[in-house]
Amino acid sequence: MELRLLVTFEKVATVLSFTQAAAELQYAQSSVTSQIRALESSLGTELFDRLGSRIRLTEAGERLLPYARQIIELTEEARAAVAGEEEPAGTLTVGTMESLTNYRLPPLLEFFHHRYPKVRLSLRTTIGDETRQALRQGTYDLGFLMEETTEHPGLETQVLTVEPLVLVAAPGHPLAEAAATAGAKVTTADLVRQSLLASEPGCAYRDLFERELAPLAPVAFMEFGTIEATKRAAAAGLGISLLPEVTVAAELAEGSLVRLPWEAPFTLRTQLAWRAGKRLPAHARLFVERARQLLSEQSAQG
Fold first, then answer.
1. 80: how many CB neighbours lie within 10 A of its CB?
2. pLDDT score recorded for residue 84
3. Were both Cys, which of 69, 132, 275, 295 would link to 160 (CB 3.0–4.6 Å)?
């Protein structure tokens, strides 16, 4: 089996489209089709079922895919070793989310930009199921997750830190004033009668928050699309919001938002994940280790 045929096969199997694979590999579509046929001929079996305009892997294709990925990854590692590249180099496609990209990752990105300029980072903003699916398909090399569970089928994970959550409101919010004057705790029952603000569906902390409230009353969130917009709405007195503490640290410090005395009955952990069985190249291993160190330092500081 020729390596270039396996590379083409892996790309088609990942995107499930001859047209998209051709565009990403910068081949003519006819070249991709002929390469897949050549590989099928050499193996004596079909690797894809053609279903009109759609395709899917056959059982033989499913069995070949993990081997193809291992061969490609080993080849890249061997090429780097033989070339004697002392400086880490390569492209990393990383799934991330707004809360991490804006509030935790800037020091990590700055570090790689200045220290390892040959490592090209491509950040893709997705959350939850989308990130996990992209990792399993090989679309992403690494992906940040903020989840309650640390075990994800088909993935290996490195837990980076526990992610504290805080329920926030404007200083003049009735719950904030009651807590300040009478020292009253906020109960879950108190929250179902309030206007609830959120960024977007799919965030683990929003889903878990909704799970806690749902048995008491129907839950409806005012959605603002981004964390920044959600914070501004809360500061303007439009309602309360549960957010990662790191995203509201500045507002809590300056007093435009206050912490309500309610403890979330669940724990989120920020994790870095990759496809199970994948041999991470040197620059990916470096990224994982540096991310672990950075978030550990951030947690120790605050």
1. 16
2. 60
3. 295
